[in-house]
From TrEMBL:
<dbReference type="InterPro" id="IPR029063">
    <property type="entry name" value="SAM-dependent_MTases_sf"/>
</dbReference>
<keyword id="KW-0479">Metal-binding</keyword>
<feature type="binding site">
    <location>
        <position position="188"/>
    </location>
    <ligand>
        <name>Mg(2+)</name>
    </ligand>
</feature>
<keyword id="KW-0831">Ubiquinone biosynthesis</keyword>
<keyword id="KW-0808">Transferase</keyword>
<keyword id="KW-0460">Magnesium</keyword>
<dbReference type="InterPro" id="IPR010233">
    <property type="entry name" value="UbiG_MeTrfase"/>
</dbReference>
<keyword id="KW-0489">Methyltransferase</keyword>
<dbReference type="Pfam" id="PF13489">
    <property type="entry name" value="Methyltransf_23"/>
</dbReference>
<dbReference type="GO" id="GO:0031314">
    <property type="term" value="C:extrinsic component of mitochondrial inner membrane"/>
</dbReference>
<feature type="binding site">
    <location>
        <position position="75"/>
    </location>
    <ligand>
        <name>S-adenosyl-L-methionine</name>
    </ligand>
</feature>
<dbReference type="GO" id="GO:0046872">
    <property type="term" value="F:metal ion binding"/>
</dbReference>
<keyword id="KW-0999">Mitochondrion inner membrane</keyword>
<keyword id="KW-0949">S-adenosyl-L-methionine</keyword>
<feature type="binding site">
    <location>
        <position position="128"/>
    </location>
    <ligand>
        <name>S-adenosyl-L-methionine</name>
    </ligand>
</feature>
<feature type="binding site">
    <location>
        <position position="107"/>
    </location>
    <ligand>
        <name>S-adenosyl-L-methionine</name>
    </ligand>
</feature>
<comment type="pathway">
    <text>Cofactor biosynthesis; ubiquinone biosynthesis.</text>
</comment>
Length: 298
């Protein structure tokens, strides 16, 4: 039987170079992209699902993102509440209650949430690994907003969270730190990432101590299998078929455990109900389908 001599000299760089030299270019590319995926939260088969056109992202009535548009009616007040302690649904705090707050919207897609948060006065950075979505978000902002104020406050960047953290930690700009934002948002993204634990860790790194990290996502339950997955994709055609993999859904209990592991504590979990016939969302105590979780960075 062959044995491995642990005292033998370790493999040298030259040996690796020789081995790599014998592998075809095609296999090398596969190996390198596999190694990169191991260290990334991005699953490109998931992000490519969101290469939608400007019209598809921004058709708020019949487009594949219509439910995300109407979701702003519930998620925007919840983000306000996370930042200023009130949902301010009657708009008593004036048109810009989020003035002075910085928000990072991770997996911002075509900018549906970023624009609404920018309208409320905050500085928003929307990032997404899908350059098609970022192009749509930038184009929509430029084409539809007259005021240069919001165009200056809402910015987009096509990159992953790990790219942003790496760029942030490079010592070019001494004023920047990895703990930059008052609020970090991941809305309808968790169910698409390659590694939830790594992703949540990175979200936490981007929040200020005492800042908020907010999630909206889909629970992994039997009702969500039939309604959020099967009915939404195959009966009501609200979403393109194959948008979701039920196995990737995360329960609120699991998310609570994960946020605790990454220096955060959950302050609230709120169920979100959706009526596919009217495209209307509401708050509810039941978290069996969609839910919103607000955590604070310690
Ligand atoms: C359902 S869309 C949500 C868009 C936006 N957050 C909204 O709610 O309007 C999911 C988005 O997450 C992005 N995404 C998927 N995996 C990601 C990852 N690992 N990191 C950041 N964004 C990701 C996709 O490219 C896509 O634009």
């Amino acid at each position: 039987m062959a044995t491995y001599d642990v005292t033998a000299s370790p493999i040298k760089i030259n040996d690796v170079t020789k081995i790599m030299g014998k592998i075809s270019l095609f296999r090398k590319i596969n190996i390198l992209s596999f190694l990169r995926r191991l260290n990334s939260t991005v699953d490109s088969t998931e992000t490519e699902k969101f290469s939608l056109s400007l019209k598809e992202w921004w058709d708020d009535r019949k487009g594949p993102a219509a439910a995300l548009h109407s979701m702003n009616t519930v998620r925007v007040p919840l983000i306000k509440e996370a930042l200023i302690g009130t949902r301010d649904e009657a708009g008593e705090l004036g048109p810009h209650p989020l003035k002075g707050f910085s928000i990072l919207d991770v997996g911002c897609g075509g900018g549906i949430l970023c624009e609404s948060l920018g309208e409320l006065g905050s500085d928003v950075l929307g990032i997404d690994p899908n350059p098609v979505a970022i192009n749509v978000a930038t184009t929509h902002l430029m084409l539809t907003k007259n005021s240069s104020d919001i165009k200056d406050r809402v910015k987009y960047q096509s990159c992953s969270l790990e790219d942003l953290i790496k760029a942030d930690s490079e010592p070019i700009d001494t004023d920047s730190s990895s703990e930059d934002f008052d609020c970090v948002v991941a809305s309808e993204v968790l169910e698409h990432v390659a590694d939830v634990d790594m992703f949540v860790h990175q979200l936490s790194q981007m929040a200020k101590p005492g800042g908020s990290v907010v999630f909206s996502t889909i629970n992994r339950t039997i009702p969500s299998l039939f309604l959020a997955k099967m009915a939404a994709e195959y009966i009501f055609n609200i979403l393109p078929r194959g948008t979701h993999d039920w196995n990737k859904f995360v329960t609120p209990e699991e998310l609570d455990e994960i946020v605790k592991r990454h220096s955060m504590s959950t302050v609230s979990v709120i169920g979100l109900g959706y009526n596919p016939l009217t495209n209307v969302w509401n708050y509810q105590s039941d978290t069996n389908m969609n839910y919103f979780l607000h955590a604070i960075k310690q």
